[in-house]
Structure formats: structure tokens, C-alpha cells
Amino acid sequence: MRRVIIALIVVLLAPSLVSSITVSSPAEIHASKGDIVTLSCTFTSTSRPTSKMTVDWSYRPQTGGPPQTFFHFSSRAFPPNDGQFAGRIRWQGSPARGEASIMLINATLNDNGTYTCSVRNPPDVHGSPTSHTVLTVTPKPPSIRFSDIAVLLAFVLIPSGVITLILIGRMFCPKREHNQSKAYRSPIEVTEGEEYGIHPPGAKVKRATCCDLYLMDSEDEEEYYNLKKRPPTDEGYAESQSPPSPVSFDL
């Protein structure tokens, strides 16, 4: 009776002794539209992988429905030739190292859903031979174009350059400080030659420079034009034209 019980225990525990295969993959993967996504899948098995080992990848859309197998590996890879994933699946696995991963090229929003990796390695056919991964693909954020950067730089650099040039101009062409006495001097306080509106012989006439014109204030301009419009006065010449006063002699 004892031998029968031991035999029954061995028979019942025999599958669990060989059911040591375990498949694992990340629970979630996030990607942007157009990215290359690696659907990772690893497995461990007490038996050495042979030509009988198989890998299957299935996909269930986010909207629901039954899973659909789109990739199969058995000694070599069999990528999908038609359907949603045609031409976009690359085998990245290595059974000898316990790798059963695949690569999804040019991810789209329609690829959102649950991906299941299933590995069979006889005699290890029990345990946890499957693993699930939820893929979430989001729209790619808009990138800044070169034209946008150029316009932004133009709006920033051009005003800055103009202000810099103005400051440099004021540094190299400082405004002349007029003497208070010269600014409000009497009309009779003239130098030789000014009574005729001309400059003395041999004197060089200084022409107005760009700095003088640029830094001239509104008051200076008004004074300049008033002096220009004022008729020349010659008090000495007027005195010479007046009749001489009579001279009296005391006897």
C-alpha cells in the first residue's frame, strides 16, 4: 500500500518537476509615433534549447478582440508577410541566451494593444510559458524647425544689434557740452569777422559731422535756425554812418 501511494505521488509531481520554463517581459512599454520599439521577452528553462523550441508573438488590439499570432520562430524566424505588421518586424532573439525579443519598426497609433510572448521548449511545456506586454504609442511632440529658430533669432539679434551700434556711437561721439556763457552771450560779444558773417582769413571752416548732426538736441536746432535767420548787425558800422556831434569851444 505504501508503494502505491509513493507511485501516485511521483506520477502527480512528475509534470511539475519538468515544468520549469518561465517567460518574462516588461508589463508596459511607452513609445512615440515613428519610433523603433523593442518588445523584450526572456525565458529560462531547465532543458537546453533545441530545434523543437518555438516562439510565438500574438497581438490583441486596444479596442478588444481575440489575439492574433503575427510572428513565429522555429529554428528560424517567420516574420509576417501581410497584415498590420508586414515588413515591420525584426527578430532580435537568441535562444541559446534565453532571448526571444522582436523589434517593431515605425510604430503607429494603431499598434496600441497587448502583445503576448509564448515560448515552448519540450519537454518544458508547463509553468509560465507566456508573458504579456501593453504597448502605448502616443503622437510625437512637434519639433522646432530651423525656419522658426531663424525668425526668432532675427527678432532678437536685429534689435540688439541696432541698440549696440547706437551705444557705440554715443561712446565714440560724445555730446559736446556748450559753455553757458557762449550759449547766452550778448549780440555785441562777437569776435573779429563775425560781424560780417564770415570767418577770419586763414581760419578753417569746420563742417558739421555726422556726430554733431546726430547728437544735436531740439533746443540746439531751434537756436541754430534762429541765429541763421537773424540779420547781421554791425554796430561799429552803424556808428560810423551817424553824423558827428557838434563840437563847442568855450571862450
Provide the descriptors you would attach to this structure in a database record:
251 residues, three-stranded mixed β-sheet, 6 helices, alpha+beta
Mean pLDDT: 75
Q: How are the strands of the largest sheet arranged?
A: 2-12-10-5-6-7
Put simply, the count of helices is 6
> How is the main sheet built?
6 strands, mixed
Question: Portion of residues in helices?
Answer: 25-40%
Low-confidence stretches: 13-18, 177-184, 193-198, 234-240, 247-251
Q: Judging from the principal axes of the Cα atoms, what is the shape?
A: rod-shaped
Distance between the termini: 186 Å
Gyration radius (Cα, Å) is: 50 Å
**N-to-C SSE string, H for helix and E for strand:** HEEEEEEEEEEEEHHHHH
Percentage of residues in DSSP E strands: 15-25%
Number of strands: 12
- Structural class of the secondary elements? alpha+beta
InterPro entries: Ig-like_dom (IPR007110), Ig-like_dom_sf (IPR036179), Ig-like_fold (IPR013783), Ig_sub (IPR003599), Ig_V-set (IPR013106), Myelin_P0-rel (IPR000920)
Keywords: Disulfide bond, Glycoprotein, Immunoglobulin domain, Membrane, Signal, Transmembrane, Transmembrane helix
Region (Disordered): 224-251
Signal peptide: 1-20
